[in-house]
Amino acid sequence: MTLDEATVEALAARLLAAERERKPITKITDEHPHLDYDDAYAIQNRIRAHKLAAGETIAGLKAGLTSKAKMKQMNVAEPVFGFMTDRGAWPDGGAIERDRYIAPRIEAEIALVTKRDLAGPGCHLAEVLAAIDFVLPAVEVLDSRYENFRFDMVSVVADNTSAAGFVTGGRPRRLREVDLPTLGLVVEKNGQVVEVGAGAAVLGHPAESIVMLANNLARRGEHIPAGSFIMTGGITAAVAVDRGDAITVRFQDLGNLSLRFA
Ligand code: 0L1
Ligand code: MG
User: Fold this and answer.
1) Once rounded to an integer, what is the mean pLDDT over residues 216-228?
2) Ligand 1 centroid – CA 109 distance (Å)
3) pTM score, whole prediction
4) CATH superfamily placement of domain 58-261
5) Residues with a CB atom less than 6 Å from ligand 1
6) Distance between start and end Cα atoms, the chain
7) Where are the domains of the chain?
8) With helix as H, strand as E and coil as C, how does 225-258 read?
9) What is the pLDDT of residues 172-215, one digit of tens each?
């Protein structure tokens, strides 16, 4: 940890203002080049505390940068983790307020809901598989609070991993009814196929995201409570969206999700 409490608070306030006013800022590491992951998660935790104090509630947890290719590209060994609040929940088939965001992008994900507490260190795949209640399709809305997507991993963690919203619904399934690594999906933007992928793009198995999340939370003295909705990470590249765009994601076995930006 390199920052004192007052600086953590000031940086959290800066990111919250950027989100509220939709005015992007320069990445935090320009000013604090030695920022480490402990600093970054401390800033993210301050953002979470402010949102809860303002009346928002935690809607779920998320893993980001979970595809091996993207982790290699960004030179990171581990995904990044964040949270979603109820304010970012958009209905399946509904309209998303484009003006809520700076430069929104979407990515298709598999979400899992847990039925038992999960805690690291030492959390492993078998434990996570035994704790999954059901599987849901999800679309994440990403929006960086940094100018022109100029960021690095610690800055992204401080910015709650670009979390901005999500859509879920479709046809929930029990884990035994689906094969997560081979579960395929097709992303369409305005009727054109723009991305295709399968669950194995996420760390070989989407539940591995939850293993890493539980072990990461343990280092911060936290755990995954039973009943958590967890988005396991983008299967496809993020797709830029703007006002008027319509997105449909067709998930094998999990139904479709549709959203439009109005
Ligand atoms: O959900 C994610 O994969 C987080 C990505 C963070 C970086 C970005 O905004 O693309
Ligand atoms: Mg994501």
Assistant:
1) 97
2) 12
3) 0.96
4) Fumarylacetoacetase-like, C-terminal domain (3.90.850.10)
5) 64-65, 140, 142, 144, 156, 161-162, 233-234, 238
6) 42
7) 58-261
8) CCCCEEEEEECCCCEECCCCCEEEEEECCCEEEE
9) 999 999 999 999 999 999 999 999 999 999 999 999 999 999 99
